[in-house]
Design goal:
Structural class: alpha/beta
Largest sheet: 11 strands, mixed
Number of helices: 13
Number of strands: 17
Length: 414
């Protein structure tokens, strides 16, 4: 494998490349993992996360495994260092090293890149946004039984309204679109409209649904639920649902059953070794995830629905500060904090690092280092239950500590 020529990143002197043999990841004892510190509170939460990950790996494997970290740059730090918000070095490094983790990034104001997060997903074709939502015992929550929620959301990352096809009201382009829609397609649209186009392809729908089903199989989840608004948008979101059932019939016939077959052939009793493929209308799903929480394990949905739903689910377990995330292709994985940069808290060593830390747990699981991942989650829960927390996790009788002190307490509980 040829090394890319980096301008502003030095190739590490030690460590091993993560590679793929077919569709299987191969990870040595000293993998090289790039990291982006992140803007704003990134300078606080990344060191805290790194401390916990390194300590857990050291303890879990008695020093036989170690991550070789490689700093790469994006956001304000990249702009200050090399004059670019998203240097080509950074995307090439993530492609080459296969696994990376990042803190929150600022979206530049004005022209240029509208979102660094969206740009990274599009440049690297990270088509699956994966958001596990699981309660951390002891954390404050607005619902009575947050522990009932344990879902993994697969959000399609490359299409839908996020594809960015928009035409501004009264622009020359929108006038052309309106004329075409009116004269050629007989569509009645007000002339003072902005126009947005929502592409949903069979290709992108199939690969995100396939990935969700494969995850359910590999992690012993008993259902996959497709969330859509197909009752209104029949040829985009309705097609997403249709293509999902067709894919399941074609590729997973021996393990997937529909709800229809569940009731008609098995009297509603799930056969052992089978996974139920469900579908729900998006607005009904927001009610169901609150009222029938235990019925959902893996959720797969389109881009905008996934954005809404993942944040709504995160609220049930205490907010985005406790929600991890990853953006995946078939061979690249970028793990990230799911919240923003919170610039007013920059450098105050105050904010909860759990979102990035939980994303680090996802990263360790992706590497196959499940013992270290499990150790961190248990230590995090022990710390929160003991009421030694950052200010945003405060409950009655809690001791409020700094971000760095919270990380040190987690290390003590490993």
């Amino acid at each position: 494998m040829n090394k890319p020529e980096f301008k502003n990143i030095k190739h590490p002197d030690k460590g091993e490349l993560i590679i793929y043999e077919g569709d299987k990841i191969v990870v040595g004892n000293n993998p090289i993992v790039p990291f982006i510190e992140g803007d704003g509170i990134g300078s606080d939460i990344w060191p805290a996360t790194k401390l916990v990950i390194d300590s857990a790996v050291e303890k879990a494997y008695q020093g036989k495994k170690k991550i070789e970290w490689l700093e790469i740059y994006a956001g304000e730090k990249a702009s200050n260092l090399v004059g670019e918000w998203l240097p080509e070095d950074t995307t090439e490094a993530i492609k080459f090293f296969k696994v990376a983790i990042k803190g929150p990034l600022t979206t530049p104001v004005g022209g240029g890149i509208r979102s660094l997060n969206v740009s990274l997903r599009q440049i690297l074709d990270l088509y699956a946004c994966v958001r596990p939502v699981k309660y951390v015992k002891g954390a404050p929550s607005p619902v009575k039984n947050p522990e009932w929620l344990d879902v993994v959301i697969f959000r399609e990352n490359t299409e839908d309204v996020y594809a960015g096809i928009e035409y501004e009201m009264n622009s020359e382009k929108v006038k052309k679109v309106l004329k075409f829609l009116g004269e050629e397609m007989n569509a009645n649209i007000r002339q003072d409209s902005g126009i947005g186009i929502k592409p949903i392809s069979k290709f992108a729908s199939e690969r995100i649904i396939r990935k969700a089903i494969q995850y359910a199989i590999e992690n012993n989840r008993n259902s996959v639920t497709m969330v859509h608004k197909g009752n209104i948008m029949k040829f985009t979101e309705g097609a997403f649902r249709k293509w999902g059932y067709e894919l399941a019939e074609k590729e997973f016939k021996d393990i997937i059953i529909s709800e229809k077959d569940l009731w008609e052939k098995f009297e509603g009793k799930q056969p052992e070794g089978k996974i139920i493929l469900k579908d729900r209308i998006a607005d009904a799903m927001f009610m169901n995830i609150l009222k029938r929480t235990k019925e959902y394990g893996v959720i797969v949905t389109t881009n905008l629905n996934g954005d809404y739903l993942s944040d709504a689910c995160a609220a049930q377990i205490g907010g985005l500060g406790l929600a991890p995330g990853a953006n995946l292709s078939d061979t690249i994985a970028l793990f990230e904090a799911t919240h923003g940069t919170a610039p007013k808290y920059t450098g105050m060593d105050k904010v909860n690092p759990s979102s990035l830390l939980l994303s680090g747990i996802m990263m360790l699981e992706h590497l196959g280092w499940k013992e270290a991942a499990r150790m961190i989650f248990n230590a995090l829960e022990t710390t929160v239950v003991s009421k030694i927390v950052t200010y945003d996790l405060e409950t009655e009788g809690a001791t409020i500590v700094k971000c760095s002190e919270f990380a040190q307490e987690i290390v003590r509980n490993l």
